[in-house]
Amino acid sequence: MPRPTTSQPAPRFGSEAWRERFERALRGQTRWASLGAFFSVSRKAPVFIPHNRARFLADGREQLAWMLAGIAAARTRIDFEMYIVEDDDSGRRVRDALTRAAQRGVFVRVLVDSIGSADAGPDFWRPLSEAGGHIIEFNPVAPWRLRISRIGKIQPWRPNARDHRKLLIVDAPASWAEASEPPTGEASGPFGSFAVVGGRNLGDSYVGYELGKGQWRDAAVLLFGPIVAELAHLFDAMWFHGEGADEKPPEFQCPHAGDAQIMAIGSQPGFLNLLQWSLAHAAWGVERELRVSCAYFIPSARWRRALRGITRRGAQCLLLLPKESDLPVVDAASRHFWGGLLAAKVRIFQHTREVLHEKTLIYDQQLSVLGSSNLDPRSFRLNYELSVLILCSTLAQAIVRNHQHNLEAAEPCSYEQWKARSPVSRFTDWFWSLFRHQL
User: Fewer beta carbons within 10 Å, N or C terminal of the chain?
Assistant: First the structure.
């Protein structure tokens, strides 16, 4: 992807002029995407929505505490979307909290991926369904199926089309936007709502164990403000596409909560991926640094050009990648593409402690991106994903501190080390790179 050119100087990264130009270019990409996608779960061009508050959740236990507090406080509506739900202590605690909410009359909807959450089957969700909650499995295992989906598209069973999104939306006291930790006790005062978006699934490995004692390294963000309404619309679209119940839920109240500008991008299989385009396009505006933490990193040619372009302009690019992830074949395919990046002075650090499952990017300590999407073909071409782009320097600095802490404990990888791999490692890396479009 060539760097955007213009007769006018490029606006400062993150400024109002930058946002307007970014949104204008994204509208153009959305029109291109619509030419090959007559029906979509999200046809509208994403925009930055103002007046929000964002809080970084580096510890999965803190995320779980906010989720349980919000579910316990909810009075009208809860939307929960998850790729993996484990039948363990953390999974059961959330299910039981949702069940209690449904019993007191809250409109509860749960959308889980049928393959990702295979261990949490109908028996796991039966208490919630008996309490009046609505639960559906997205894209259930049914190879014999051929149907016309609600969005008007012939939809055969596609084992690769997974709902990889992670999202919780609840109504909760508006005053919670000012809270520094999950509130306890009876909820009171005017109600608003909040959302939790990130890369963590629901299970002990993600939100149950202590950091350094079994918890996978990941991240999420707690959001208050009008962006919650947009996230609710994205959930509604997936619920409709997944053939959930037609009953109309109560509207979330989303009062102004802060000064963060946030864009939500929900992507889907088979279309020009607006998230990949947005992330690469933003990289061409980096003036100082881009920091990335990514569990599964198989960069496209567009992404490799964008990353090399950052270092050619004199800025730095810092990548935190796993030395050994839970998917060794992805690690091998990823290493095959490191050479050109390292030669261009992109700095790669290998995380050696707990499993790295994080997906975060920070541009010039201004724009933060968190969500479910990795930087790999599976996320950009096969999965349904959800990420948020957040313009807030306070949030960005918190994520940078966490990223720097992780870099200091990681192993740097040099171009010389990459070239010195054994012939077997070179062959293995090359071989698995041939299958990168399925990884």
Answer: N
